Amino acid sequence: xxxxxxxxxxxxxxxxxxxxxxxxxxxxxxxxxxxxxxxxxxxxxxxxxxxxxxxxxxxxxxxxxxxxxxxxxxxxxxxxxxxxxxxxxxxxxxxxxxxxxxxxxxxxxxxxxxxxxxxxxxxxxxxxxxxxxxxxxxxxxxxxxxxxxxxxxxxxxxxxxxxxxxxxxxxxxxxxxxxxxxxxxxxxxxxxxxxxxxxxxxxxxxxxxxxxxxxxxxxxxxxxxxxxxxxxx
Length: 233
Hints:
Elements: E1 4-5, E2 13-17, E3 21-26, H1 42-53, E4 63-64, E5 73-79, H2 84-93, E6 98-105, E7 113-123, E8 128-132, E9 140-151, E10 156-162, H3 169-176, E11 200-208, E12 215-219, H4 226-231
Parallel strand pairs: 5-11
Antiparallel strand pairs: 1-2, 2-3, 3-5, 4-5, 6-10, 6-11, 7-8, 7-9, 9-10, 11-12
């Protein structure tokens, strides 16, 4: 298991690769799958990497297992085989894959650690979710656990474990307790980050390999940023 840089052009950082899966460290601004912007998605960049690496002719198979928001960084897992994809999909659907994120917020959370339960409703028109404290029409239950792991001069570093995977879940749930993520203008932070990112990073992923049936634990290096560096120096 080693980190590799494909090229300066794509800056693709491969965290793990075997015959059935490939895991990369997504940069802020990359989209995982194609959308209406027409920008080249990460899935296509990974396909190009595999095509070049193995001198493949024709189309390269790649299955998208899960996604990260465009301004978010960190771990993204892809399937390289049609055999692995449905097994990985099942792992994620059954919440057997454990995802841990880290986030930087300006305000202290009400508690140093807690479980947040909300009902989220997505508005496709503005690509934004709203959190409710009780179930209303059109909402889906969202659960996460957080704990404060470090206090910096002006920010708090929070670790988040997701129990459900809803649209913008971490962003809207933290914002709902008065802790919008640094740089996240959409959910209440007062200014953007210089690179248009938000300070939310998919840090670790733990799952059972879909074919080998062994535990795989991946940790994604943080963005090279002075504030992130201060957290893990």
